[in-house]
Design a protein that fits this description.
Layout: H1 6-48, H2 54-81, H3 86-96, H4 103-115, H5 124-138, H6 143-146, H7 153-172, H8 174-185, E1 199-202, E2 206-209, E3 213-220, E4 229-234, E5 244-247, E6 253-257, E7 264-271, E8 274-275, E9 279-284, E10 291-297, E11 307-310, E12 317-320, E13 324-331, E14 334-337, E15 341-342, E16 349-352
Parallel strand pairs: 2-9
Antiparallel strand pairs: 1-3, 3-6, 4-5, 4-7, 7-8, 7-9, 10-11, 10-13, 12-16, 13-14, 13-15
């Protein structure tokens, strides 16, 4: 078997290494371009289309992930299956250098076939001549000229353009870009849509006693010119049921009474293009306690000293804005000291209920 000349062997090895680097760089650039492009497209869809159905959000997210994964898998398969052979590398070099007159291709092809045990019919004298002439020519070539890595710039330019687009958008509107990226890539995270920051929903997440009147209100900072809609879904024990839409009043409020028949439900508000995140409401029964003592620390503007009341005096503790109320609740054989409740309601008076641990509730 005739071996390849040293210069030819070294040259082909270097050309192969640079070719593999170029192919890997192209593959990575392609995956980055496709991934960023589909992410930008999904963000544009989420910004322009109001998606209420969770299935729609998941479909958008899965599309992004599947396209990115598909491009990465396709690039990997292309890298593995498209590795050039020595004969193919020799053909490319011959095509760039007509003076070789395909000597390199012929030499490499014959040597490769002989190494595989095939009969080539080439005479040793012919092979020696081809080897000497090919070796003389190849010694003057440089691998960096045969495979210039500068070709990778053509693939990197669109990737850099997309990265600059995202960076510029984040620099100009960081909150907007963060919101859209989070909604597209993490649909399991409960967050409002792009315009959610233009509405304020009260009271938000809530744990209330059965029979409590619940008032849900929304205030808008954007000029939507529309009455809000409340979208309620209830917990069935295994999943959230289908949302039911209820219009809010002209003042953008909605009132309901906490009912133990529906102990857990959630809601979100839709006003114009804005959709808030979900807020959860848990309804608990009235606590079954033996007695309680409440210490009311009145705010400085009242000029009053702290007062202490118990269930022997009142059944409902009332305090003004700025008060801090600390409960000590006795449930035989325990006496539980609760964290102070700080009254921050905008109303001048507000009924305060102790938030008791579940193990001392009826």
């Amino acid at each position: 078997m005739t071996p390849l000349p040293p210069h030819v062997t070294s040259f082909l090895r270097t050309v192969r290494r640079r070719t593999n680097r170029l192919r890997c760089g192209r593959a990575l650039a392609l995956v980055g371009i496709v991934s960023l492009a589909v992410l930008a497209l999904a963000m544009a869809v989420d910004a322009t289309v109001t998606i209420f159905d969770e299935t729609g959000r998941w479909a958008l997210t899965l599309t992004v992930y599947l396209v990115a994964f598909g491009s990465a898998l396709g690039a990997l398969i292309a890298l593995v299956r498209g590795r050039p052979t020595n004969t193919q590398l020799a053909q490319r070099i011959d095509a760039r250098h007509p003076e070789l007159q395909e000597r390199l291709t012929t030499l490499v092809d014959v040597v490769t076939r002989e190494a595989a045990g095939e009969e080539t019919g080439a005479s040793p004298a012919l092979l020696a001549l081809l080897a000497r002439e090919a070796d003389e020519h190849v010694a003057a070539y440089r691998a960096r000229h045969e495979v210039p890595l500068a070709r990778l710039v053509l693939w990197l330019l669109p990737l850099v353009a997309l990265l600059l687009l995202f960076a510029g958008a984040y620099w100009a509107r960081p909150k907007l870009v963060t919101c859209l990226v989070q909604r597209v890539l993490t649909p399991w995270v409960d967050t409002g849509n792009l315009y959610a920051d233009q509405i304020t929903v009260t009271p938000g997440d809530l744990t209330v006693l059965a029979g409590t009147n619940i008032v849900i209100a929304v205030q808008t900072t954007g000029d939507f010119g529309q009455t809000g809609k409340l979208r309620i879904s209830r917990w069935t024990g295994t999943q959230w049921d289908r949302e039911r839409v209820s219009p809010m009043s002209a003042t953008n409020t909605f009132e309901t009474v906490a009912d133990l028949a529906e102990p857990r439900w959630r809601y979100r508000v839709n006003c114009g293009p804005a959709v808030s995140r979900f807020y959860e409401v848990n309804v608990v029964p009235h606590p079954n306690y033996a007695s309680f003592v409440a210490t009311v620390a009145w705010p400085a503007y009242t000029g009053r000293t702290p007062s202490v009341v118990s269930n022997a005096d009142v059944s409902v503790v009332r305090a003004v804005v700025g008060s801090a109320v600390t409960f000590a609740v006795t449930v035989p054989p325990l006496t539980v000291m609760l964290s102070p409740l700080h009254l921050k309601s905008l109303s001048q008076n507000c009924v305060l209920y102790a938030k008791l641990p579940t193990d001392i509730c009826a």
